């Protein structure tokens, strides 16, 4: 299994191939079924990644299930380099899992131009999978930008009434960050090329991560890389594009946006910013931590004030992702692992929330909470799923959200960088706020008296809708009660990342002027502490 | 570093053979004039021109790996000149294919047009192959004079007349600068040969005179590539000229001029100048051009005018590559020129297809394009490719081009220029995206009534547009070979790329 290296590339590009096939199909039905089949097969194939990945095998020199093909000729060391390690495995699977779910959720929601919608959706999946799988910064950048094109059309064509404004805002925000990052990539590629690659420009992640960027340059590069990813996350105060994009996007777009697109930002911080620029990251961590905590509280408070359900969930994303960023900059094993698992959790629970809101909107054509009320009586099954997702999102113990947030808070508490008790204490209030605003939303929409006769006659979920929500609910329970198999897979990769970063930070700190620092990637030698064997899905 | 000049008087037949592609194109021009005289506006004429230029391009391809000189160093053949000529001919053939249906619709598919395109192309090829200041001037003028006429082709229209006259007057003005620069350079060095200029300067020591000459020469070049502040003519000329000929003017003539500029920088000027004063000048001009071109394009409501300003901005990106003053930079510029040719010919091709009748031809406003994507999905998707490629989105060649020029700039310690460039690209994203918004995110009902009639898209136009889009995708996904080729022809093979400081 382990040498079946083409599998990952197949998983990445299968949706794009499906998108091409779609273009030749005549009827809406054929298009939908083909899209569903493509995403379902992609998911099934991606399970092979889970099976083929061995957490015990070192990824210090190369990722597993890797493919590395030269691309730009010998004078420029840019390659098609994809692989799997402990950091991206879960995110890849999350993306492929959401694929069929999003297609199913769009089944009747999308009313026009089916061909374009599903083709773009599939193209988007390829883009996101490529982002997570890339071990070449240039390739990463290409996929990162590639995700913008389908998303802007999905928002702009199939979105709500202010869709054009939201689409343009989304593009411009992201472009500012990513294009500046491109200059950073160029600079870093040349500097690292001179230091570790015999003078040849390189964007190979494994070569860049060894190279200790001199302190002064680290700050500049940290700024451009960090900005690109923090816009994407989005970290307060760069979040203002998110509520617009979320509110205007069609359900499928919102789910992909919340589920995986935002994770590209947090993943970028973890994969590139922290290990490439450890000194600047550590030094800036307290300030990033403050912004993250402000985001947690601000997002929660603003969510509380919303009357539009989608906007409320959008602001809750700002709040939840604040936790993730806080954990990422804690330089602590538990916190970083918590962040990683929280990325997946947020994708599942917020994705579920957007799906359910989409189902409500499809029935009543309004997102305003005031238009609902008392619908628990008419749609009990929908209410059950809503409550479940809300509890997961609010971090109720026993469900997945709790695991991630708890680990982040513990890890941050003892962290050397963001371990300020006040900071962490304030962050903890975010968990409480989350329960309040989410339950308040449920109370206002699902309980109380039925005020509008239309709400009394709403139809409950059909088989398709239950079917697409069930896997998410199952994962909420599984990851809440038994997170070990998920955590175990990222443990050593995270330890390797933190150790390497810390070693490199120390080496850069003590290096003389003009001295080239090269630190090989550390790999923890001892056996993984988590004892439980991985269950076979 | 001057190339060794092989002086061999017996090589006249060989010289003719080496310059055969240029001579072929020029000769075809004469043939077309004759054909037109006896069989007025014959349907065969476009075929003769198109196939002839394609053959010339194929001939050039054989010389790519055999760089040398002809006519005692007056002309470079092979290498950079051959690659540039192939790009020029690509643009010319594609524009020609757009021109036939476009002008036929206007009832103006004259035989002379094709003769002018051929002569102009021969001038461009001469310019891109120039080995001496005289050849440079001859090429530049042959190209320009034909373009002045083409710009004013639709005699009855006042905008066309304005376009032609403006182009001619300002062009003549810039030619004056250029010629004066040549005179000063000759005075300072005692030679017209590009490869001997640096040597001549070292002998005479007339640095002041030399610098003045270089400055004037640069003004001439910058005018022709419409860099800010010498871009004033561009929007009016591009808007007023027939759209398919705008495609020709905005691509092939720029390729030729940029290629010649790259040759002057890489082969004629001393390295310390190219990476000193000239670098500073070009970098500042590049920065101003990128910013001004994009910002002004932002407020245009006429799509053709917007594309004109966008082409000003793209001149800035290419200049950023040249400013680096390295083989990688010149190669990057050459790569960018091919990508730019495909993007711009494609975009103007779509534009031309959308001007489906006389009334519409005058109205190129964004509003009239509302929902076009749903009426003509092929044009809508292709325009999407061109707009995203122009913005610099992967996986299209425009992105690779930007990556290469900015990477050359960063390598030459011009990181600030790269930063200005990417910020300008963000601005450009707004107006390119607006085209997409209008074409796809608005409904066809939003268009004014007269823009809602059905219209046909010719096969030739569709083929050119499709091939340009496909070319951008292929060149964007598999750029490796062409990157090596373009860097290699400026002496920046694998080793030189590495060794550049």
Structural write-up:
- The complex is a heterodimer of chains A (537) and B (501).
- Chain A is mostly helical and 537 residues long.
- Chain A is 70% helix and 4% strand.
- Mean pLDDT of chain A is 86; it is low at 527-537.
- In chain B, 76% of the residues lie in helices and 1% in strands.
- In chain B, helix 6 (133-151) packs antiparallel against helix 11.
- With 501 residues, chain B is an all-alpha fold.
- Chain B has helices at residues 12-18, 20-38, 44-63, 79-106, 111-129, 133-151, 158-189, 197-204, 207-224, 233-240, 243-268, 271-274, 277-298, 303-323, 327-354, 358-362, 372-375, 377-391, 397-411, 415-441, 459-477, 480-488, 494-499; strands spanning 68-70, 75-77.
- Mean pLDDT of chain B is 86; it is low at 493-501.
- At the A-B interface, helix 5, helix 6 and helix 7 of A face helix 19, helix 20, helix 22 and helix 23 of B.
Shape category of chain B: globular
Largest interface (CB < 8 Å): A-B, 39 and 38 residues
Termini separation of chain B comes to 17 Å
Query: Which structural class should the secondary elements of chain B be placed in?
Result: mainly alpha
Lateral strand order in the biggest sheet of chain A: 1-3
Mean pLDDT across residues of chain A:
86
Helical/strand content category of chain A:
mainly alpha
What about the largest sheet of chain B?
Answer: 2 strands, antiparallel
What is the gyration radius of chain B calculated from CA atoms? 22 Å
What features would you highlight for this structure?
heterodimer, A: 537 residues, mainly alpha, two-stranded parallel sheet, 20 helices, B: 501 residues, two-stranded antiparallel ribbon, 23 helices, globular, disordered C terminus
What does this entry show, briefly?
In chain A, 70% of the residues lie in helices and 4% in strands. Chain A has helices spanning 6-23, 28-52, 89-105, 114-133, 137-146, 148-158, 163-196, 205-208, 215-232, 241-248, 251-276, 278-304, 309-328, 333-364, 380-394, 400-413, 421-446, 453-456, 463-481, 484-510; strands at residues 64-70, 76-77, 79-84, 201-202, 211-212, 517-518. Classes of the chains: A mainly alpha (537), B mainly alpha (501).
């Amino acid at each position: 299994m382990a040498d079946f290296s083409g599998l990952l590339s197949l998983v990445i590009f299968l949706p794009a191939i499906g998108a091409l096939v779609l273009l030749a199909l005549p009827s809406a039905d054929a298009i939908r079924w083909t899209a569903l089949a493509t995403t379902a097969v992609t998911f099934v194939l991606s399970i092979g990644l889970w099976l083929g990945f061995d957490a015990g095998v070192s990824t210090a020199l190369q990722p597993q299930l890797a493919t590395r093909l030269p691309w730009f000729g010998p004078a420029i060391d840019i390659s098609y380099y994809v692989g799997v390690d402990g950091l991206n495995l879960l995110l890849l699977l999350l993306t492929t899992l959401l694929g069929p779910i999003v297609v199913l959720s769009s089944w009747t929601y999308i009313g026009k131009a089916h061909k374009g919608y599903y083709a773009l959706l599939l193209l988007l999946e390829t883009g996101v999978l490529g982002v997570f799988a890339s071990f070449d910064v240039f390739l990463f950048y290409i996929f990162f930008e590639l995700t913008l094109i389908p998303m802007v059309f999905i928002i702009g064509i199939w979105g709500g009434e202010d869709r054009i404004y939201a689409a343009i805002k989304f593009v411009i925000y992201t472009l500012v960050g990513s294009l500046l990052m491109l200059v950073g990539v160029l600079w870093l590629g040349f500097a690292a090329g001179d230091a570790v690659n015999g003078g040849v420009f390189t964007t190979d992640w494994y070569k860049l991560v060894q190279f200790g960027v001199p302190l002064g340059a680290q700050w500049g590069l940290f700024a451009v890389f960090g900005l690109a990813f923090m816009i994407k996350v989005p970290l307060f105060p760069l979040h203002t594009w998110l509520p617009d994009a979320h509110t205007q996007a069609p359900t499928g777009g919102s789910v992909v946006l919340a589920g995986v697109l935002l994770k590209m930002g947090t993943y970028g911080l973890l994969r590139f910013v922290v290990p490439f620029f450890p000194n600047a990251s550590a030094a800036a961590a307290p300030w990033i931590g403050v912004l993250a905590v402000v985001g947690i509280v601000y997002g929660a408070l603003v969510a509380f004030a919303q009357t539009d359900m989608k906007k409320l969930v959008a602001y809750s994303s700002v709040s939840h992702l604040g936790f993730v960023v806080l954990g990422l900059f804690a330089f602590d094993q538990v916190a970083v692992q918590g962040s990683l698992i929280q990325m997946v959790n947020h994708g599942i629970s917020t994705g579920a929330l957007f799906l359910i809101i989409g189902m409500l909107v499809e029935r009543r054509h309004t997102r305003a909470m005031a238009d609902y009320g008392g619908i628990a009586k008419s749609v009990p099954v929908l209410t059950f799923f809503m409550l479940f997702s809300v509890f997961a999102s609010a971090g109720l113990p026993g469900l997945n959200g709790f695991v991630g947030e708890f680990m982040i808070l513990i890890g941050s508490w003892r962290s050397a960088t963001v371990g300020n008790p006040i900071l962490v204490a304030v962050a903890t209030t975010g968990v409480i706020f989350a329960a309040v605003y989410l339950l308040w939303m449920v109370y206002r929409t699902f309980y109380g008296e039925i005020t509008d006769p239309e709400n009394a006659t709403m139809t409950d979920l059909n088989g398709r809708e239950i079917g697409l929500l069930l896997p998410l609910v199952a994962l909420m329970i599984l990851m809440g009660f038994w997170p070990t198999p998920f955590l175990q897979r990222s443990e050593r990769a995270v330890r390797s990342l933190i150790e390497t970063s810390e070693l490199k930070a120390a080496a850069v700190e003590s290096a003389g002027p003009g001295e080239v620092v090269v630190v090989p990637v550390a790999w923890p030698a001892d056996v993984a502490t988590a004892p439980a064997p991985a269950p076979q899905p | 570093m001057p190339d060794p000049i092989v002086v061999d008087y017996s090589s006249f037949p060989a010289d003719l053979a080496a310059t055969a592609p240029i001579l072929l194109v020029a000769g075809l021009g004469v043939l077309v004039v004759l054909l037109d005289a006896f069989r007025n506006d014959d349907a065969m004429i476009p075929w003769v021109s198109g196939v002839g230029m394609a053959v010339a391009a194929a001939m050039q391809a054989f010389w790519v790996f055999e760089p040398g000189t002809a006519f005692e160093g007056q002309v470079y053949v092979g290498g950079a000149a051959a690659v540039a000529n192939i790009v020029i001919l690509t643009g010319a053939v594609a524009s020609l294919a757009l021109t036939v249906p476009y002008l036929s619709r206007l009832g103006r598919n004259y035989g002379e047009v094709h003769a002018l395109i051929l002569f102009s192309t021969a001038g461009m090829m001469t310019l891109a192959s120039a080995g001496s200041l005289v050849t440079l001037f001859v090429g530049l003028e042959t190209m320009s004079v034909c373009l002045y006429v083409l710009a004013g082709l639709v005699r009855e229209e006042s905008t066309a007349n304005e376009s032609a006259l403006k182009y001619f007057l300002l062009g003549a003005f810039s030619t004056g600068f250029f010629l004066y620069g040549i005179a000063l350079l000759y005075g300072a060095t005692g030679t017209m040969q590009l490869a001997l200029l640096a040597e001549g300067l070292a002998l005479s020591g007339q640095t002041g005179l030399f610098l003045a000459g270089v400055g004037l020469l640069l003004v001439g070049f910058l005018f022709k590539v419409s860099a800010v502040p010498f871009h004033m003519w561009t929007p009016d000329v591009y808007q007023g000229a027939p759209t398919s000929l705008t495609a020709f003017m905005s691509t092939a003539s720029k390729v030729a001029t940029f290629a010649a500029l790259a040759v002057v920088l890489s082969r004629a000027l001393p390295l310390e100048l190219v990476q000193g004063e000239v670098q500073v000048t070009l970098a500042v001009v590049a920065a101003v051009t990128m910013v001004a071109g994009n910002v002004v394009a932002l407020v245009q409501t006429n799509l053709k005018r917007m594309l004109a300003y966008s082409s000003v901005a793209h001149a800035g990106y290419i200049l950023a590559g040249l400013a680096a003053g390295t083989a990688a930079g010149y190669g990057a510029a050459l790569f960018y020129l091919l990508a730019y040719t495909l993007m711009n010919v494609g975009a103007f091709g779509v534009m031309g297809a959308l001007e489906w009748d006389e009334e519409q031809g005058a109205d190129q406003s964004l509003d009239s394009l509302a929902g076009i994507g749903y009426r003509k999905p092929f044009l809508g998707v292709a325009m999407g490719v061109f707009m995203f490629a122009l913005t610099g989105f992967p996986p299209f060649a425009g992105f690779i081009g930007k990556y290469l020029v900015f990477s050359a700039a960063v390598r030459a310690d011009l990181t600030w220029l790269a930063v200005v460039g990417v910020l300008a690209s963000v601005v450009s994203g707004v107006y390119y995206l607006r085209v997409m918004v209008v074409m796809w995110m608005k409904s066809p009902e939003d268009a004014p009534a007269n823009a809602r009639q059905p219209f046909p898209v010719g096969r030739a136009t569709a083929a050119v547009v499709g091939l340009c889009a496909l070319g951008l995708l292929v060149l964007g996904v598999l750029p490796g070979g062409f990157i090596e080729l373009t860097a290699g022809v400026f002496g920046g093979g694998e080793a030189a790329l590495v060794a550049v400081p």
